[in-house]
Specification:
By secondary structure, this protein is an alpha/beta fold. It folds into two domains: 122 residues, 3-Layer(aba) Sandwich (Rossmann fold), CATH 3.40.50; 85 residues, Rossmann fold (3-Layer(aba) Sandwich), CATH 3.40.50. 54% of the residues lie in helices and 11% in strands. It contains eleven helices and five strands, in the order E-H-E-H-E-H-E-H-E-H-H-H-H-H-H-H. It has a five-stranded parallel beta sheet, with helices on both faces. Helix 7 crosses helix 11, helix 8 packs across helix 10 and helix 8 crosses helix 11. Keywords: DNA-binding, Phosphoprotein, Transcription, Transcription regulation.
C-alpha cells in the first residue's frame, strides 16, 4: 500500500511564492497542497476546514503575522504541525515561532527536494532543523539576550524547569543545546542512538516542549553552556 501523502496548507502573502511552493511540493514524491491563504488572519479557519498535517507558515504578513498565527493554530489544533517559512536563516520571529511550538523552519530558497523532505519529516512528527541551524538560532538568542534582572530571572526559571531532569537527561539536553546530532551525542556520552532518542523524548515530555530547539533555548536560558 502506498504511503499517504501529507496534506499541506500554505499561508504566505506572496502569490508567486505560493505558486512556486505548489509546484515544488506537488511532484510524485511530494505532498498534497489542499489549501492556501494570503494572511495569518485566516490560519485557524483554514486549518479547521481542511485539517492539514502540516502548515507552511510565512512569518511577515500584513494583518496577522506568522508568530501570532502559529500560536493560534496550535492552541486550536495542537496536533497540526507548523513549518515556518522565512527569507533569512537568523530571524527573531523564527526563534519566537519555535518557542511557540513550530516544528522547524525552511528558507524560501530551499532546494525542492529538501523542502519536500522537510515537510515529510514534520508530518511524521520529527523536526526540520539541522544541528548547524540549531546552533545558529541558539547563538543568536544568546548574543541578543537581555542583561541584568530580566536575564537573571529567565535563567532562574529555566533552571527550575530543568531540575525535573535526571543527570543523564541533563547531559543530553546540554549536548542538544550545543547543536549535536543524536549520533554525535551517542559517541560523546557512550550511549546507543536509540537510547539517545529515548532520552530526548523523555526530556520533551517532562518539560512540555515540542522540539529540540526549544530544549536548546531553555538550556541556554539557564546559562548551562560555556560562553553563555
Amino acid at each position: 500500500m502506498a504511503e499517504r501523502r501529507p496534506r499541506v496548507v500554505i499561508i504566505d502573502d506572496d502569490a508567486l511564492v505560493r505558486a512556486g511552493l505548489r509546484m515544488m511540493l506537488g511532484g510524485p514524491d511530494g505532498v498534497d497542497v489542499v489549501a492556501e491563504a494570503d494572511d495569518g488572519d485566516r490560519a485557524v479557519e483554514i486549518v479547521g476546514k481542511f485539517r492539514p498535517d502540516v502548515v507552511l507558515m510565512d512569518i511577515r504578513m500584513a494583518r496577522v503575522d506568522g508568530l501570532a498565527a502559529t500560536r493560534a493554530v496550535l492552541q486550536a489544533y495542537p496536533s497540526t504541525q507548523v513549518l515556518v517559512l522565512t527569507t533569512f536563516d537568523a530571524d527573531d520571529y523564527v526563534v519566537e515561532a519555535l518557542r511557540s511550538g513550530a516544528r522547524g523552519f525552511v528558507l524560501k530558497d530551499t532546494p525542492p527536494e529538501r523542502l519536500v523532505a522537510a515537510v515529510h519529516e514534520v508530518a511524521a512528527g520529527d523536526h526540520a532543523l539541522s544541528p548547524s541551524v540549531t546552533a545558529l538560532l541558539v547563538g543568536q538568542v544568546s548574543s541578543g539576550a537581555h542583561g541584568g534582572d530580566q536575564r537573571d530571572e529567565r535563567s532562574r526559571q529555566a533552571r527550575e524547569r530543568l531540575a525535573v531532569l535526571t543527570e543523564r537527561e541533563l547531559e543530553v539536553a546540554r549536548a542538544v543545546a550545543r547543536g549535536a546530532s543524536n549520533a554525535e551525542i551517542s559517541r560523546e556520552l557512550y550511549l546507543g542512538v536509540p537510547t539517545v532518542k529515548a532520552h530526548v523524548s523523555s526530556i520533551l515530555a517532562k518539560l512540555g516542549l515540542a522540539n529540540r530547539v526549544q530544549i536548546a533555548l531553555l538550556v541556554h536560558d539557564a546559562t548551562l553552556i560555556e560562553g553563555d
